[in-house]
Amino acid sequence: MDTIAGLFNYWIVIVLMMIGFYVVIADSNLIKKIIGLNIFQTSVFILYISVAKIDGGAAPILEDGITNYVNPLPHVLILTAIVVGIATTALGLALIVRIKEAYNTIEEDEIHEKDGTL
Amino acid sequence: MLVVTALATVFVRDLFAVIMLFGIYSLLSAGFFLNLNAPDVSLTEAAIGAGISPILMLGTLALTRKSLAPSAIKSKKKAWLPIIVVTLTGAALIYATLDVPHFGDPSGPAHNHVAPRYIKESYKEIHIPNIVTSVLASYRGFDTLGETFVIFAAALGVLALLGAIKQGDADDYRQFSDTASLRRHNILHVISKILIPIILLFGLYVQFHGDYSPGGGFQAGVIFAVAFILYALIYSLSAAQKIISPLFLQITMVIGVLLYAGTGVASLLNGANYLDYSVLGQDALKGQHNGIILVELGVGITVASVMLSIFYTFAARALHTNETSEAK
Q1: What is the pLDDT, as a whole number, of residue B313?
Q2: How close does chain A come to B186, measured CA to CA in Å?
Q3: Domain ranges in chain B?
Q4: Which residues of B touch A20 (CB under 8 A)?
Q5: Looking at CB atoms within 10 Å, which of A82, B100, B121, B249 has the fewest?
Q6: Which residues of chain B neighbour A82 with C-beta distances below 8 Å?
């Protein structure tokens, strides 16, 4: 029982990660692939923030009389990762727009068809 | 809740609904972060995940949906292969978690090496209550500099991919076709007129108060960009571009990065290591303060102009394609 309660967060992360992973490899629509990647990415964020949590710890902003804080380091990493994530997502979306202009479709299998690959 | 929303994004076919669900998913995870005592992260995720990324995705959708082949009924064959792969990977990962320290356990290895030092010493060394800010801007200044460059590079990439529109068309930009109805809504006009200054003010507060409360350059930049994106959506792209032109954004983008890098050079010139702010004031603490404010300002300027310029690029592209397809 203790194991389940203690690891529940990580299992949620894994479930989310696998959902994202599934979308990335199984869906042929490129926009959905990007969303899948984003879900995967968010699951990693949640993983890090979960690691940072300490029972009874306060938010990492120093105040008098509080000695127990959650770990600030993962927060820093994830904070910047989110912003970098949106920038790279935008780049991916831009690529999709160009793919659409070149192939007139954003379905992966149709692109393969037009290329004669696969 | 998160899992349900995420699952829904898998099964819903309509891309518009998927994007909306993704926005909800991001908002939920922002709440989750707040629950885990990570207000800085939560602020960022709320502004980006629920604010900017759905807008960009909708922009892409507007650009790509037209003349999409009617492939709504997709063949479900080969669906078992990814499911097997995913289940196996998931099972392996869950097996691996059995060795992981429990959630909230203070004796976990992550909490026992560098983190206690930051918590104990950062106030003495940097004199800023928000540990996240001091770690972000000072201890890990190199990282953050690199990240600022990454988003700068991403903006360059987007501009290179989508930015090339004939300048002649720029004069008669019209409204996004999707938001034409928004423009005529008086209620939206009044509310946005009230809201936008408040959003901007909040952005400034988050920028300059980031040392004491959750916030900093990244969040402030995003909030700032959101205010202008809202303006552009409700009024028109050209109205927003009259206030802040794309060229201006491209310049401020560079200024932000240079401000950050320049702060490092300034500390070099004062005889310290690169990005060691101790020498930038009368004493080390003052110097740290000045350095962090400058660096956060650089980050904020870069993030705001990058986000806004990416939005402009997508929006202008949408207008452009609309016009050319109508002309045909």
Answers
A1: 83
A2: 31
A3: 130-166+178-327
A4: 6
A5: B121
A6: 41, 44-45, 48-49, 218
Chain A: give the shortest CA distance to residue B191, in Å: 27
A72/B293 Cα distance (integer angstroms): 19
- Highest CATH level, class, for A2-115: mainly alpha
d(CA B38, CA B35): 7
- Write the CB contacts of B80 (distance below 8 Å, at least 6 apart in sequence): none
Q: What pLDDT does residue B68 have? A: 46
What is the structure's pLDDT at B17?
Answer: 76
Alpha helix stretches (DSSP H) within chain B: 2-11, 15-35, 39-47, 53-64, 80-97, 115-126, 131-134, 141-162, 180-183, 186-208, 217-234, 237-243, 246-269, 284-327
The tokens of A48 are what?
């890090």
Q: So what's the pLDDT on residue B182?
A: 55
Q: How many CA atoms lie within 13 A of B127 on its CB side?
A: 12
Is the Cβ pair A93, B314 closer than 8 Å? yes
Which 72-111 residues of chain B touch chain A by CB within 8 A?
A: 74, 79, 82-83, 85-87, 89-90, 93-94, 97-98, 100, 102-106, 108, 110-111
Chain B residues with beta carbon closer than 8 angstroms to that of A6: 102-105
For residues A51 and B108, is the Cβ–Cβ distance under 8 A?
yes
Class of residue A20 by CB neighbours under 10 A (exposed 0-12, middle 13-18, buried 19+)? buried
Q: Which residue ranges of chain B lie beneath pLDDT 70?
A: 1-13, 65-79, 104, 126, 164-185, 210-211, 319-328
Q: Which residues of A touch B218 (CB under 8 A)?
A: 79-80, 82-83
